[in-house]
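Quick entry between incubations.
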Amino acid sequence: MAEPLLSPVHVSAGVLLLALILYTLFGGADFGSGVWTALAWGPRAGTHRESLFSAIGPVWETNHVWLIFVVVTLFTVFPAGFSALFIALLVPLVIALIGINFRGAAFAFRHFGKHEHGTARLPATAEVFSISSILTPLALGMAVTATAAGRIQVLDGRLAAGLWASWITPFTVMGGLIGVAMCAFLTPIYMAVRVPPDLQEDFRRYAVVAALALGGLTALQIPIALWDAPAFAERLFRPLPAATVLLAVALGLTTLLLLLTRRYRPAQLAGAATVTVTLAGFGAAMYPDLILGQLTLFDAAAPAATVRAYLTVLPFGALILVPSLWLLYATFTRSVELE
Amino acid sequence: MGVSLAFHIVYAALGVGLPLMLMIAEGLALCRGQEIYHRIARRWIRPAAVLFAIGAVSGTILSFELGFLWPGFMRFAGGLIGLPFAMEGFAFFTEAIFLALYLYGEGRLSRRALFLCTIPMTVSAGLSAVFVISANAWMNTPAGFRLAGGQAVDVSPWAAMANPAWLHQALHGTLACYVATGFAVAGVHALALLRGEPPEHERRALGLSLAVAAVSLPLMLLSGDLAARIVAHTQPAKFAAMEGIFETTRGASLHLGGWPDVRRGEMRYSIAVPGALSFLGFGDREAVVLGLHEFPPDRRPDPRPVHVSFQVMVGAFFLMLLPLLWAGWRWWRARPAALPRRALWLLVLSAPMGLVALEAGWLVTEFGRQPWLATGYMRLAEGVTPREGIAWIFLAFLGVYIALTAGLVRLLVTPVRPRTSGPTGQVAFHG
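Done. Structure below.
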């Protein structure tokens, strides 16, 4: 690689990865609340659903903006990559998009509709909310892993592998499931800190189940990658990605341990760190490509002036955003009030 | 894409306008200690929150559609118009954060803090409109690059953002959001008064929304005038199409109504105001206005949709001006007295006119740019996706939008009933 190690393109790629991670950490937890709305069990399942619902109320829209941020960064800094990815991943992205729409609408309608009619009046919205909460991270997870699957080949705006085969492989299906598992893993861990003690135990149980599922799926993904996405697997065994993977495993086990010993606050940090490092490992393995084996970050990048302009705007934006976000979360994490 | 945008414009316009109204209401409540304004604001919250949520998801659809439908255009222009989109992203983020704080913060934040939240909300909502419009303006008057071998070189994203059409489009478009919101809200409250809702609350809410409309509507005229001059200079083909000018004319007339007959190359059935067009475009009644026939047939827009949209926009403007003048006159003459029922009905009828004008104005700029996607550089056909079967996506999204809108309308319409029977002045939001 002739390019310097810390070029504007590198920084922008880092920002893109960071935005994706933040979307998973915040938006993912929103999806997770939908997953657990569907899966909630036990005598207090109704209370679980209600507390999940009121917890994400104030923050889901903000969390959702991270996705817009990912998309905007992609097309500002990597327009060629944006173009290729949106041709290749049309179907999963459309599915995710429709999921996001129905999810947001179901949530808004339920939230603002229930005051007149009582909670039980609109059960259909809760179902729409759950189904789309599972569908969306599945489709997005598949789309993200498809960039690593080595099947995306765009020639003159046409897909070499066709509309479906470009993104449906055992490897990407596993990626989608991992996406759902990540969401399901984060939500109960976050919730355990915020709910009264009797509910804490229930959410702890959910978190342990999800942690085992996530661990199992990611572990399984490595042999699947060796068989189905060998190019990615080869990258994954380079020193830096391999070290990241090991760190993710260690963090995951730590989270599980903290959950089992009921230390919720550290578990929250460890859980978020697990997801962060897992995604960072994926990013490290992808480097220096945006689409594995097809398009490097540098080939996808916009003209240097644009990348520089983007990075110039970024700190100003962050200056406004970071304190605002802090204010938002600080205001609403004080405790969940059940209505 | 066009259909998605048409829906999105409605949500987004109200999403830009409502924060301003919330800010004014909360500000009044705080400064004058009039609790009623706070209650008015809290009543607007429900529609504001739902509209904003839907605006957010429909905006996401749009950003995805850029990739689905226009991969060629985005490959060419992504690096050029990405900057305002990135800024819009930040502005939108800020708006979302403070809206959430404002909406859900009651009980957790002081009243002063709630009011303070509405300020960044209003500012960032306005800014996000201004930034997004920059991208559209760039398509009308591309700037900030040089074309070499089909590739954009010497790219300057700052120059691209500050393209010639940005100023007038941003002013005109953002003000239009305020006008549209003012009238839409005024119409709702006028209807409530007609139905016999408690007049104290409704009258103040009506007054506030009319005040917003009354301030922004004249500004629309000024920004429209500015727009006419800039378009006349920078987009002569669009200017000609707006008024159906086929042959280059000295002292061109303004056509009211009418239908551009493309085959015969003349305006028919219109009322012509001699010299007015030259004056509006160039400040001189004798100025020369380029005609459509100056442009090769494959490089000029079809004047029919452009002229009709333009007429609709101007017509809607006057349909708003009239009731506003009437209401203003009555208000000035007999301040505490209620508006007569006829004036209220007129306000109800003019409620959608702001949105109609906004949509029509957008159609003017879009149809007027045809056949270009980026004027002079890329045609519509070159930027569109090469993929067949795009129709099903289109239908899917149309379905999504219709479902969203149906749900929205149902939600916004239903609560009117229980409120009439409930105790007066009770805030529905706390349920």
